[in-house]
Automatic annotation (TrEMBL):
Protein name: Outer membrane protein TolC
UniProt-annotated location(s): Cell outer membrane
Coiled-coil spans in chain: none
Family: Belongs to the outer membrane factor (OMF) (TC 1.B.17) family.
Cellular component GO terms held in the UniProt record: cell outer membrane; efflux pump complex
Keywords: Cell outer membrane, Membrane, Signal, Transmembrane, Transmembrane beta strand, Transport
Gene3D superfamilies: Outer membrane efflux proteins (OEP)
Pfam families: OEP
Any GO MF annotation of the entry: porin activity
SUPFAM superfamilies listed in its UniProt record: Outer membrane efflux proteins (OEP)
Leader sequence residues: 1-19
Amino acid sequence: MKKFIPFLLLLLCVGSAYAQTHLEQYINTGLSNNETIRQQQFLLDKSLWALKEAKSLFLPNVEFNGNYTLAGGGRTVDIPVGDLMNPVYKTLNQLTGTNNFPQIQNQSVLLNPNNFYDVKLHTTFPVINAEIAYNKKIKSQQYDLQKIEIDIYKRELVKEIKIAYYNYLQATAAIGIYENALALVKENERINTSLFNNEKVNRTAVVRSNNEVTKITAQLNTAMINRDNARDFFNFLINQPLTTPILIDSITNIPDPHVADDTAVNKREELLKLNTAAAINKNLIGLANSYKIPKLNSFLDLGSQAFDFKVNDKSPYYFFGISLGWDIFSGGRNKFKVKQVEADTKVIASQTSNTEQQLRLQVSTAANSFNTALINYNAAVSQVASSEKYYKDELLLYKEGISLYIELLDAQNQLVSAQLQANISLYDTLIKQAEIERANASFTIQ
């Protein structure tokens, strides 16, 4: 017992540099292997491409267009060329005594172009368009919002990994306690058997000591199952095979009591998320009001057109223009859109206030729980020392035949219970520390 208790107290403390190294490695593994984070990263990539798409709207858009038409029938334009020119040609023939000026027929030209091609490069460029500018701002903020979503999940995952790791260490330490208790009850069984053989105790003491061996053995088996379950859940969180062995950190220090002093919530991603949503909503108001700003666009066509697929010095052409559009009247639809977005702004402001209050309550509760856990741990350590002394005294008295076995058994149960409580209390302080780090966002996420 003299060797075990100091070892237990050493094991039940937190945080050497070597210990943190293993835990930090597991946290990094969990953050890099988690499938949900990968899915969130895919959504972040999607938001990035959407942002690049929004930026591309500021650049010219060039299209290649080509068409060829055949036509027959339909509307025509009648040109009385013969009626106009034939009298003149007849007079000229008479004056010259020749037939150099033949008679011509009136012409009928189809309105639809027949055997006609038109190929061109059509370029458009937005000169003034407020919708494009606001759309770019919104896409950029949506990208930031997705990054915040990932950070929120990462921070929660870090907390869960830490708690699962401490639960595993706690279960492992509990096995050591039960193994030591089993050694004690087996020693008591040996002593009782020896005393019974020497007719110093009755069979009841032997039977009771046998029962204690059976009880502690069952508790040890349960502790092993709990450890295996804690191991499987921890490996699940970091996306490793469930039965992968876990490296146990050596523990040398208890949590710093001052970690509960930081009760600020301004670093919480949840508030940053709401602030970003409010900024997006502000730009949505600007987008809804963009109807007040006229839209000015330009276009340029460079191409070639002619009949019968001819290409000559007359077929190339260019066509340039500017278009101006201004929404004058739309039955109030644009104003109604603005009112809807303004209502959303009030909702976000209310959510921000409520969320901030909830986060303050969370960090306050976590700090109080941490302080309580420290008090409980210190009391549990003191109880272990007292229980050890009480057990040694009772064991000595029992060997001398002064004390009853039931008193020794009570001292033994008190010692085991105190050791288990010290184990639980210590790791409870670590768990509460992880909850504080989650509540005040003090853990640095890589």
